[in-house]
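In response to reviewer comment 3 from the previous cycle, which asked for concrete evidence that the modeling workflow produces usable outputs, we include below a single protein chain processed end to end. The sequence was submitted unchanged, and the resulting structure tokens are shown without manual editing.
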Amino acid sequence: MTGARRAQIVVSAHPQACPRCGGEGLASAKIPHQVEAIRGPIAGYHLFVLCPTCDADDPGAGPLITFFHVHGQVAEYNQEQFLDLLARWASTLAVPRVDQEALDAEYQAWLRGEL
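The workflow returned the following structure tokens.
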């Protein structure tokens, strides 16, 4: 996919669970991407969940996690700081590359009725 990607960032009172540890997330981001398939490109998105446990040591996520621990929520007085930290975190997110061999093997297994 070429050009700038637009992330959809979600911060809510009921955040999504972390898919890595199952703990409560603080925010989530959906990053669009495109996968080349046999019949042409397939558009989708990759979901990232900001997790206070899994992402604590991540340099892009750590300051945002600290913000949530210190402030609890976004208010008018800290909104600018929050947006800056959120933008920094979002800029570090990268959609993992597709393992084409694994994808092809799964597709062949599906064709054989194994999945």
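The CA atoms of residues 65 and 105 lie 38 Å apart. We consider this sufficient to address the reviewer's concern, and the full set will be provided in the supplementary archive.
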